[in-house]
Amino acid sequence: MSEPVLEIRNLDVDYGLGDRAVHAVRDVSLTLHRGEVLGLAGESGSGKSTLAYGLTRLLPPPGVITGGQVIYHPEKDSPYDVLALSDRKLREFRWAETAIVFQGAMNSLNPVHKISTQLTDVLRAHDPAMSEHSRNARAREMLKLVGISPDRMDAYPHQLSGGMRQRVMIGMALILQPQVVIMDEPTTALDVVMQRQILGQLIELRERLGFSVIFITHDLSLLVEFSNRIAIMYGGRIVEEAPASTIYRNALHPYSEGLLGSFPALRGPKRELAGIPGSPPDLAGMPSGCSFHPRCPKAFDPCPTTVPVLGPPADANAAGRTVACWLHPALENR
């Protein structure tokens, strides 16, 4: 595996303060390697978006980071903790080093401004010395890169299709050539064909430009197809992490198995889809022990009382994978 570009170390995020605080992200550690696509999957409410907004310090009130580090590794300079940056340094870091395509990105464009204005505003904010001609040339170049004709520069958002607006947002995220692009369910509102087109184009851009991607979605089928590694979140924690092909062929955690069983296979024999019974846990009143045990068909004695540690499984091929489950206890659990 290549060198790391972003390390999340024991990150904790709460909503609210004191005894009534909701622990939305709990002790999450992840490493994104240079040039990699890291998929983050889980049901709504599992903490995926909170993790993304926490590591970029974009949490809306009353969200607060209560612990951990986010270490960014620039290509040339020394690593530093994003959570310790001053406001001025943080403004320089956003978009230039790490960009985010927000959930509902198709509707994130300002409806009263032309596409050209919204693309060049990013350049104007980060490079005031850049000439207007150079800014417009760069904006046209980015539109062409994401498959939109440069003659749509003067169009307003309502004059573009949903897929084109999505591509504009991806172009805006890439315009300063960041090292990390975080995509928070960027294709949720699009049909399946358009999803594949945009994600295929994103992977092509990644191979050409060399940036890394954290791709957040509840649709595990997309991650299996487009990610190098996948991390599964449940109840604010990572419960399994492995290469995408490993998760698909041999998921160890029952929650991962449930997610895989909830979408139809594109090839091979037909199989009956099986949903996950019950509902995601209430983060304000998490169950004791493993948070998945009330819904788990394989729960047994230690599950309701003891939280399993995330680590390499002692009873399976542990190359590049971790799991937090008493069915496959990590060495740390023993």
Automatic annotation (TrEMBL):
Keywords: ATP-binding, Nucleotide-binding, Transport. Gene3D superfamilies: P-loop containing nucleotide triphosphate hydrolases. Coiled coil: none annotated. CDD domains: ABC_NikE_OppD_transporters. Residues 8-260 form the ABC transporter domain. It holds the Pfam family oligo_HPY. InterPro entries: AAA+_ATPase, ABC_transporter-like_ATP-bd, ABC_transporter-like_CS, Oligopep_ABC_C, P-loop_NTPase. This is Dipeptide/oligopeptide/nickel ABC transporter ATP-binding protein. It comes from Paractinoplanes deccanensis.
